[in-house]
């Protein structure tokens, strides 16, 4: 069963760099086996918990038919779905994501990737929230290597959003975690992250405001001290195709 897709992407990347592919795979297959057994054990425990939840729901609402064919296997599906949506917890090292940078010469202006779609889970109610993330950063200059300014592939920015979104949390923390990861791993001259999110816990319960959008931001480096840079980021954000 495919629980942690990011892990297998890491295996493929490692295999491409291994000097001895067979030895590398022997080691990784052992790790995969242990990990899959752990995840399967967690799934079995979660199934029991979800069965209790459904029985309690019937206790609250006796008209619920637990023999409904649509509920057959539901606890297992709920368990597998939660393992998948929280799979970012299985990524332990951001450095593997930002494993390579590229020389950019003299370009030292803002680089921005916007409208990065994500899905996450609210830590308060375990309801999903979805939206888009926007990332802007100023490439750092590598003077000792005379390589000019350094950038990372655009897919790395999208992937770091997926990694941190795929875990139970708050949108505010998601925003800061993405910013801190970029700051830590690629050491840009500045970074700014803005996240928009629509929350199931706000739309489906409580206030029931389905069109409300939460916006959070996190800034560091030159972005923090420059209103001009922040305005440029926000102006670029308004440019829609």
Can you describe what's shown?
It is a single chain. This protein has about 240 residues and is of the alpha+beta class. The chain folds into 2 domains: about 5-85, no CATH class; about 100-235, GTP Cyclohydrolase I, domain 2, CATH 3.30.1130.10. The chain is about 45% helix and about 20% strand. The strands form 2 sheets. A 5-stranded mixed beta sheet has the order 6-2-3-7-8, sandwiched between helices. The protein has a 3-stranded antiparallel beta sheet with strand order 1-5-4, with no helix packed on it. α1 packs antiparallel against α2 (about 20-60), α2 (about 20-60) crosses α3 (about 75-85) and α4 (about 155-165) crosses α5. The longest helix is centred in the N-terminal third of the chain and has 40 residues, at about 20-60. The protein is flat. The two termini are about 40 Å apart. The mean pLDDT is about 90.
Give the helix/strand layout.
Blueprint: H1 5-17, H2 21-60, H3 74-85, E1 102-103, E2 111-122, E3 128-138, E4 140-142, E5 148-151, H4 154-165, E6 168-169, H5 171-186, E7 190-199, H6 200-203, E8 214-221, H7 222-225, H8 227-237
Parallel strand pairs: 2-6
Antiparallel strand pairs: 1-5, 2-3, 3-7, 4-5, 7-8
